[in-house]
Amino acid sequence: MAQIKLHDQRKPLERWKLIGRCTVSCISVLLSQLALSLVPRFFSASPLFIQLILSALVLLVVVGLGRCSKRLLGVSGSASAFVFFNILFVWAVYLAVLRPAVSCLMDIAFNLAITMLIIGLCSILSSNPGLVTYGSSDELVESSVAEFEAHNRILKPSASVLCHECPTEGSVLGRRVRYCRICKGYIKGFDHHCPAFGNCIGQNNHVLFMVLLVAFLSTEASYVVCSSQFAAKSQIVDRTRLETSLSGNLAISTMLFSIFQLLWQAVFMTWHIYCICFNIRTDEWINWKKYPEFQDVVHSQPGQSFNEMRFKNPYDKGIRQNVKEFLGF
């Protein structure tokens, strides 16, 4: 088999293009958060569950409008910048509105959590997920889609595998190396490409990704507690002001936003904990029919004209061993 050369094709975004995408993301955050503040403004008498559903609908409408503007105007934002500006917005609401009503202990806990969250986001944005070369696990290279498809026609591997049939367990090509079409690179231990973090999640940054999920959950949970303390104190002092003022509406809307984020991120984290326990990647679970090592072909019985293909996980070594392997022990 001839050696396949991989070339670095990723180019950094131009400065003005990057500034433009960040500006669009910042405007999108302001519009979405202001739209969310209308929910407690006009539905203050509704139960919290109803307000939460309405907030989710508002977010869906804002996302839909954002996609329409991208198609019509050709203007797009950055998912990672959108996440970052949302964090800054929530922090700003906390400092300007909630902080005077929050206990000292919760103030320290929230500010520490959100500071660590921002540091973690910056770290994962610049982290190397496990980009590899053909023949070396230490060099950083990538491949264009055209080169990958040419490779695909020669060796006939799956659409995301560099050479999963390589029998050498110790070689780079035998270490669950998958191809990411977004990054145009081969990633060792590829789980998925995360638009919110602007990077692939692979073997080198998978632990950091899980730590970030915990940081998001703890930050959002502490913010819900802080906003609850503010709402309780404001209702005792002046309930009318809480329901009519912009600051009061922002306090409630950001709390609803945090609760919504908590719900889906808890499910998301549960899924990734499951994957860790059984040593399976998200990409492998979704696209297992593309990977021969996950296929268990049951030959047809006499009289049947087809074989049945079932899922199997050749990497599952037991929960304890899988967790140790994930942590690098």
Written description of the protein model:
The chain is mainly α. Helix content is 58%, strand content 7%. A two-stranded antiparallel ribbon has the order 1-2. A two-stranded antiparallel ribbon has the order 3-4.
Provide a concise account of the structure shown.
Helix content is 58%, strand content 7%.
Features:
elongated, 10 helices, two-stranded antiparallel ribbon, two-stranded antiparallel sheet, 329 residues, 58% helix, mainly alpha
Chain-wise SSE layout:
Layout: H1 15-36, H2 38-42, H3 48-73, H4 79-98, H5 104-125, H6 145-155, E1 177-180, E2 185-188, E3 192-194, E4 199-201, H7 206-244, H8 246-277, H9 282-286, E5 295-298, E6 308-311, H10 319-327
Taking the sheet with the most strands, its summary is: 2 strands, antiparallel
The H/E string reads HHHHHHEEEEHHHEEH
Radius of gyration: 24 Å
Relative helix content:
55-70%
What's the arrangement of strands in the largest beta sheet? 1-2
Return residue spans where pLDDT drops below 50 for at least 5 consecutive residues: 1-11, 135-174
> In DSSP terms, counting alpha (H) and pi (I) runs of 4 or more, how many helices?
10
Q: Strand percentage, roughly?
A: 5-15%
The total strand number stands at 6
Q: Provide the structure class.
A: mainly alpha
Form type: elongated
Overall pLDDT level: 79
- How far apart are the first and last residues' alpha carbons, in Å? 35 Å
